[in-house]
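User: Reviewer 2 asked us to show a designed sequence for the structure in our supplementary figure. I'm pasting the structure tokens here. Could you produce the per-position amino acids so we can include them in the response letter?
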């Protein structure tokens, strides 16, 4: 039920499908490559700011800015290493497309459709990361790295052109400043004022703590997981590639069909709790499991746990006012960005404490001459093969206990029925958009390891970005 008085630029009325295309192209382009994306603290600080500004000035211009800066380093990869690293460090502050996308979706969906729309966006994100690394590896093997970089650059340009030409503004005119030149009070654009208001809301605060505690182990898991499967469980490269594909496909199914079913039967909060329960189970299974069949079973459970993030995004969008969707989605995205920086460091430290050495394999080839690390002899089997996974399971147990105290809003339909139709559609769209935003930030960009597993969770998928096939 989008309104008819939207910015005429773009094709048709704003819809979830505009958001889906933007996300797919952006991450497909990065998934073709094998470079790490430096996010973390920068995105933690910038995501709420960009989300808040999009609540004032509209989504379309900020979609352009975030996609442009996220993809700008791609062509520089082969042109100039110095400019590439300068640009990629700067792009960390802007790699927060998900917060804007989720706010966009919230603008154009009503509350009942929002969790389904968030799941669709998250599944699209997963699909782009499941397909692109294999395609990038194949093209690189047959035609060289330059073609892959060129193709990724063209896809990123296509994404920017799509936003410019086809994506209409989703924020209703009455909720945003119509022109950039209009006078604006600092209170309207002050993101810190918005953050303070949102931070005083105990519901949003509890959701943010839940996201931090559950995403921290996930970010760490995906940074080391493929190397762990390869060196400790002795998976071959082919088996790893199949594992990534199977878990990726299962998580896409979980985020579309299963998520919709659970939201209708269990409700929003219970779906979040179920997703966290699946995450505890898979982390504990990875921690204690030493046989390959256990890894496959835990991977299937991990795919089930990918429902957590769209459900959390829908929950936080319900808890925020229509004009605060960008801010709250930005907070979630920012927390995921922070976890992307802290999680891998935490896992590496715990592996170090327990004398489990994971060595990087298949370093990036090309202009950046990185000497491969010598491979050590296979690690001796310890009593607990994966101590960091158990630590992560304990963290998620705490997240589960925090999530139990998140108040369940009375059916939002009662409150939203009091809003005008236009306000209602605006609110809903924003919520879905924000959920997506969270996913995006979580995502580490493509990494250099050949075998990165796609994770079942949205968070899982991000690791795919982090460690893509060379």
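Assistant: Here is a per-position design you can include in the supplement:
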């Amino acid at each position: 039920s989008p309104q008819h008085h939207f910015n005429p630029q773009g094709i048709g009325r704003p819809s979830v499908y505009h958001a889906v295309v933007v996300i797919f192209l952006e991450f497909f382009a990065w998934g073709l490559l094998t470079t790490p994306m430096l996010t973390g603290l920068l995105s933690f600080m910038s995501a709420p700011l960009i989300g808040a500004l999009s609540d004032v000035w509209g989504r379309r211009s900020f979609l352009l800015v975030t996609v442009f800066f996220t993809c700008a380093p791609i062509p520089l990869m082969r042109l100039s290493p110095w400019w590439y690293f300068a640009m990629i460090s700067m792009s960390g502050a802007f790699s927060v497309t998900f917060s804007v996308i989720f706010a966009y979706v919230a603008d154009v969906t009503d509350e009942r459709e929002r969790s389904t729309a968030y799941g669709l966006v998250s599944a699209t994100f997963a699909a782009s990361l499941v397909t692109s690394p294999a395609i990038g590896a194949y093209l690189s093997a047959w035609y060289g790295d330059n073609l892959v970089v060129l193709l990724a650059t063209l896809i990123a340009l296509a994404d920017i052109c799509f936003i410019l030409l086809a994506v209409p503004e989703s924020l209703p005119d009455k909720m945003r400043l119509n022109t950039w030149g209009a006078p604006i009070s600092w209170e309207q654009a002050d993101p810190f004022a918005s953050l303070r208001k949102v931070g005083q809301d105990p519901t949003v605060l509890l959701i943010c703590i839940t996201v931090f505690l559950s995403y921290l182990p996930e970010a760490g898991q995906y940074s080391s997981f493929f190397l762990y499967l390869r060196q400790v469980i002795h998976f071959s490269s082919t088996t790893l590639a199949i594992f990534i594909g199977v878990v990726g496909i299962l998580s896409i199914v979980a985020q579309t069909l299963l998520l919709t079913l659970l939201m209708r039967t269990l409700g929003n909060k219970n779906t979040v709790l179920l997703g966290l329960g699946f995450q505890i189970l898979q982390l504990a299974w990875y921690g204690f499991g030493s046989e390959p069949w256990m890894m496959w079973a835990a991977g299937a459970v991990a795919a089930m746990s990918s429902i957590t993030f769209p459900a959390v995004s829908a929950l936080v969008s319900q808890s925020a006012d229509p004009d605060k969707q960008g801010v709250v989605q930005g907070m979630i995205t920012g927390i995921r960005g922070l976890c992307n920086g802290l999680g891998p460091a935490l896992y590496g430290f715990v592996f170090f404490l327990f004398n489990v050495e994971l060595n990087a394999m298949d370093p990036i080839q090309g202009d950046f001459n990185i000497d491969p690390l010598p491979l050590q002899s296979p690690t001796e089997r310890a009593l607990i093969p994966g101590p960091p996974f158990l630590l992560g399971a304990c963290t998620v147990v705490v997240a589960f206990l925090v999530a139990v105290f998140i108040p369940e809003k009375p059916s939002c339909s009662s409150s939203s029925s009091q809003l005008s139709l236009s306000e209602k559609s605006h609110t809903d769209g924003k919520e879905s958009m924000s959920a997506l935003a969270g996913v995006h930030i979580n995502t580490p960009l493509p990494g250099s390891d050949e075998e990165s597993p796609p994770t079942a969770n949205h968070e899982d998928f991000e690791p795919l970005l982090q460690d893509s096939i060379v």
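For the response letter, you might also mention the following. The first helix runs from residue 16 to 31. DSSP finds 20 helices and no strands in the chain.
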